[in-house]
Amino acid sequence: MTDASFADGDPGASHRLALRAEDAEGLAVISALMQDAVGKTVDTAWMPTRRIFALVVNRFRWEQEAGADAREGGAFERCRCGLHAENVLAVRATGFDPDKAQEAFELLSVTFEPGEDGTGIVRLDCSGGAAFALDVEALDVRMADLDAIWKTDMKPRHDGIEP
Q: Which helix or strand (DSSP H or E) is residue 159 part of?
């Protein structure tokens, strides 16, 4: 018996992902799917009374990437996607210019640094050394595709890594 893969399903253009992570393993899946998402700082929100940090980005659909070369034109896909963390006690942003509300960022990874008794820090590391650090009481991160999917000819590339 082998593990299922994206190819086993038929994740067509109408399929939207919605995932929840309550442990590091689940967060690794969300991190892989959110890698290379692009957004603007104006599309981030810290809601301290609700203990939620949220952002909306344009997510590269890595789950579609494997079949892109076989599709007409080899086009890749992006979609609007929301990511939010619950149980957030504090938020720190580093490497962003506070005078630029429309500052763009590229999300590279979402990780969890465990603390005592289930607490810890959810890190959203971005290109250029920028990051969001979320002090959480418990790990609870969710992502969901929000709306239409569009084609793009640009596949994210990372220096020093062969495609």
A: none
